[in-house]
Amino acid sequence: MKDLKIAVIGYGYWGPNLVRNFTNLENSTVSHVVDESPDRLEKVKKLYPDIDITCSLNQILENTDIDCIAIATPISTHYDIAKKALEHNKHVLVEKPMTNSVKHAKELIELSKKVNKVLMVDHTYLYTGAIQKIKELIDNDSLGEIQYIDSTRINLGLFQSDVNVLWDLAAHDISICTFLLKEDPISVQAIGSSHTESNFEDIAYLTLHYNSNKIVHVNCSWISPVKIRHMLIGGEKKMILFNDLETTEKVKIYDTQYQATKSSNEKKILADYRIGDIHTPKISMREGLSWLAEDFVNSILNNSTPISNYKIGLQVVKILEASQQSIKNNGVEIFLENN
Ligand SMILES: NC(=O)c1ccc[n+]([C@@H]2O[C@H](COP(=O)([O-])OP(=O)(O)OC[C@H]3O[C@@H](n4cnc5c(N)ncnc54)[C@H](O)[C@@H]3O)[C@@H](O)[C@H]2O)c1
Description:
This protein starts with a strand and ends with a strand. It is α/β, with parallel strands linked by helices and 339 residues long. It has 9 helices and 15 strands. Nicotinamide-adenine-dinucleotide (NAD) binds at residues 9-15, 34-37, 40, 57, 72-75, 77, 95-96, 122, 124.
């Protein structure tokens, strides 16, 4: 079978990971890398002498030998590049989040349907051994009904020049919650503040409300002295701590439950706790991006729907856009339209 030819656009922090993973994959070849910075292109040439480099996106779009475009440029550029790529009949893998507005995300989806090309978003976490294991535990009801997800994603992070910290970091948590939970949130609240002239919030807190009694809370910061990547998932039967900074024991399952009953005079809540074993399941250590790259290629070759499909991509953008509206209105609750 002929290899799919992929051009990677953007070779900054994340682009090199796309180039490495697609290069290592069967059935795909990275034929070109595009970056507007000649310095970045020099780095490609040193590592991969066989890959063609160029500053010109148009040259890539006009090249009919290229089947796919993988976009790893800043978020504000995603829509424009993805639109041009689809219009030139290329399959598209775009970095998270898909676009910086719901309107643009919907436009890209419609265009991909019209030209019958794959449009996929790189929500890498969905392909990690940890999230796959947690999904399995939720789906086979090992945890019971999920009551909350509480995520902390903070560090001294790279300030993005075109979006706030939620668009950068909470995009991961929202994609994970969309993937794990069988229900979409009905409303969104967020607060945050900026400490730079850019006015993009560098610290922010996001809450998602659901029709059932679930609640999701995400704490994101680029200005924390310590790096924390903790996600607590509370089920009626068991609870999980996913610590992404652990090398091997990333997922710990706590056999912990509580029963809360009202006392006979109905004034006090009596809580009965059961603290059981802590179990660490074996999880796949395969790099998530490697499996994501394979899913992208397979979805093109087999005409299948990838795990990180455009519906998840759109849901992430919807929640981020609502969070931005909420922040601008001092944390007011924003209701989501469910279509
Ligand atoms: N999936 C993940 O886990 C993950 C992790 C980090 C970043 N990302 C995403 O990757 C994207 C890029 O982030 P980054 O941190 O690598 O950014 P970056 O600023 O480090 O790199 C962007 C690169 O794109 C180039 N560029 C900018 N505009 C361009 C254009 N119009 N045409 C060609 N080249 C252009 C820049 O010169 C730069 O080399 C963002 O969408 C970000 O959210 C995803």
